[in-house]
Write a structure and sequence with these properties.
- This protein is an alpha/beta fold.
- The chain folds into 2 domains: 3-261, Spore Coat Polysaccharide Biosynthesis Protein SpsA, Chain A, CATH 3.90.550.10; 279-362, Hexapeptide repeat proteins (UDP N-Acetylglucosamine Acyltransferase, domain 1).
- The protein is 23% helix and 30% strand.
- The protein has 10 helices and 28 strands.
- The chain has helices spanning 20-23, 41-49, 64-70, 102-108, 110-115, 134-144, 197-210, 214-221, 242-252, 255-261, and strands at residues 6-11, 32-33, 37-38, 54-58, 84-88, 120-125, 128-130, 148-157, 162-167, 173-179, 183-196, 227-231, 236-238, 279-280, 285-287, 290-291, 296-297, 300-302, 305-306, 311-312, 317-319, 322-323, 328-329, 334-336, 338-340, 345-346, 351-353, 360-362.
- It has a 7-stranded mixed sheet with strand order 5-4-1-6-11-8-12, with helices on both faces. Strands 14-17-20-23-26 form a 5-stranded parallel sheet, with no helix packed on it. The chain has a 5-stranded parallel sheet with strand order 15-18-21-24-27, with no helix packed on it.
- α4 (102-108) crosses α7.
- The radius of gyration is 21 Å and the shape is elongated.
C-alpha cells in the first residue's frame, strides 16, 4: 500500500468528558503531556512518519489552543501548497449544537472526504499515549485483504466506553462488545481504524440515516464485513481520567517507559518553541525529574515532570508533581502529588498535599 494513497483523520475532541479538568478550555488533542508535547502529537507524528501527507483534524469545541499548537502544520512537515494539514471545524446549522459523535463529525466533513483523492483512510483518537508504527498497520491491512482493520491491545481495559473484541483464528472479529467498565484482561480497541475511503463514505451515510454511532454500526456489520483485529504490543496508555493522566506521567519517570515511548528511530514531533536551557541554582536539588527547557530550579524537585518555563524558588520543595508551562512555586512552598495547569502561581510558604491515588488539580492561572 502506497502511504501517499492514505488519508489521515484525527478526532481531537474524543473523550473530552473523561478529563473535564483539563478539557474545559481545550480539546483532548491539545492537552499537554510529557513536559513539551500535546496529546495530538503522538498519532499525528505516527501518521507523518508513515508517509501520510494529508491529515484532517475533526474538531467540535474549544479548539483555539489546538489551532495555536498546530498552526499550518510546519513542525510536522505538513505546511504544503497541496494536501497537508486541514482543520475540520463542526458544521453548525439551525438548531445544531455541533458534532456529538465520531460519525457526526465525519458527516460534517463528508465533503472533505469526497474531495480527497486518497483510496484509504486511517483514523485515530487523541487520548492514547503511544508511539505506533502506522506503516506496519497499513501493510497488515493490505496483506489481509480486510474491509476494516482495528488496532487493539490486550490488557486492562480503561474505564471508557470502548470496543472489546473477540477474534477468530486468522484475526477476524467475531464479536464486538461495547462497555465503559474497566476490565482486567480483555482485547480492547485503541480506536485506530484502517479502511477504504469509499467504504467509510458509505458507512457514514448509513450511520447518519439510522442515527447510529461508530460502535453500534460496527456491531451490526461484524457479520457483513471482514473486520480484522490487529494486536499491537507496543507501549500504550489510554487516558480515561485525571488519575490515569497523573499515573501516565509518573510511569514516564521510569526509564523503561521513556525508552518504549520516545524512540530515536520513531521521533515524536511537536511545535518548536525555542527557549533557554534549564537553569539550576547553587542550592538546587533535582532527582528523577523530567525537566523541559526554560525551567529555573532553585529549590528541590523530586520525581516530577516540569513543563517549559516552570520556576521553583529557593526553599521550595516539589515531589511527585506534574507542573505545566509557566507554573511558579514560591520560596518555601511545599507541593506533593499536585497537577498544576498553565501559569499557576503558588505563593511563598504554601503547602498543598495530595496522595498518589487522588492528586490535587490546580486550574489554569490560579493563584494559591
Amino acid at each position: 500500500m502506497r502511504t501517499n494513497n492514505v488519508l489521515g483523520i484525527l478526532y481531537s475532541n474524543s473523550y473530552d468528558e473523561a478529563l473535564p479538568e483539563l478539557t474545559s478550555l481545550r480539546t483532548m488533542g491539545s492537552v499537554p503531556f510529557g513536559g513539551r508535547y500535546r496529546m495530538i502529537d503522538f498519532p499525528l507524528s505516527s501518521m507523518v512518519r508513515a508517509g501520510i501527507t494529508k491529515v484532517g483534524v475533526v474538531t467540535k469545541a474549544n479548539y483555539r489552543s489546538l489551532m495555536d499548537h498546530l498552526g499550518m502544520g510546519k513542525s510536522w512537515d505538513l505546511a504544503r501548497k497541496h494536501e497537508g494539514l486541514v482543520l475540520l471545524p463542526p458544521y453548525v446549522g439551525a438548531g445544531s449544537g455541533g458534532n456529538q459523535t465520531r460519525m457526526e463529525g465525519l458527516w460534517s466533513a463528508l465533503e472533505f472526504l469526497r474531495n480527497s483523492k486518497e483510496e484509504f483512510v486511517i483514523m485515530s483518537d487523541c487520548n492514547a499515549v503511544c508511539n505506533l508504527d502506522y506503516q506496519k498497520i497499513l501493510q497488515a491491512h493490505a496483506a489481509s485483504g480486510a474491509d476494516i482493520t482495528v488496532a487493539c491491545r490486550r490488557g486492562a481495559a480503561p474505564g471508557l466506553r470502548s470496543m472489546r473484541l473477540r477474534l477468530e483464528e486468522g484475526g477476524r472479529v467475531s464479536e464486538i462488545a461495547v462497555s465503559g467498565e474497566p476490565a482486567a484482561d480483555v482485547l480492547y480497541s485503541l480506536n485506530i481504524l484502517v479502511l477504504r475511503k469509499a467504504l467509510l463514505e458509505r458507512l457514514t451515510r448509513e450511520a447518519n440515516s439510522q442515527g447510529l454511532g461508530e460502535y453500534e454500526l460496527l456491531q451490526r456489520k461484524v457479520n457483513d464485513l471482514d473486520i480484522r483485529g490487529l494486536e499491537v504490543g507496543s507501549y500504550a496508555r489510554l487516558i480515561d481520567s485525571l488519575l490515569s493522566y497523573y499515573d501516565a506521567h509518573m510511569e514516564l519517570l521510569q526509564s523503561e517507559a521513556r525508552k518504549a515511548l520516545f524512540r530515536p528511530e520513531q521521533p515524536v514531533l511537536t511545535k518548536v518553541q525555542d527557549d533557554m536551557p534549564a537553569i539550576y541554582g547553587l542550592h538546587a536539588k533535582a532527582s528523577n525529574c523530567l525537566v523541559a527547557d526554560g525551567c529555573q530550579i532553585k529549590g528541590e524537585a523530586e520525581n516530577s515532570v516540569l513543563f517549559r518555563g516552570v520556576t521553583i524558588e529557593e526553599g521550595a520543595r516539589v515531589k511527585n508533581c506534574v507542573l505545566m508551562q509557566g507554573t511558579r512555586v514560591g520560596a518555601g512552598a511545599n507541593l506533593e502529588c499536585v497537577i498544576s495547569d498553565k501559569a499557576v502561581i503558588i505563593r511563598p510558604e504554601k503547602t498543598i498535599t495530595g496522595v498518589a491515588s487522588y492528586p490535587i488539580y490546580l486550574g489554569k492561572k490560579i493563584v494559591v
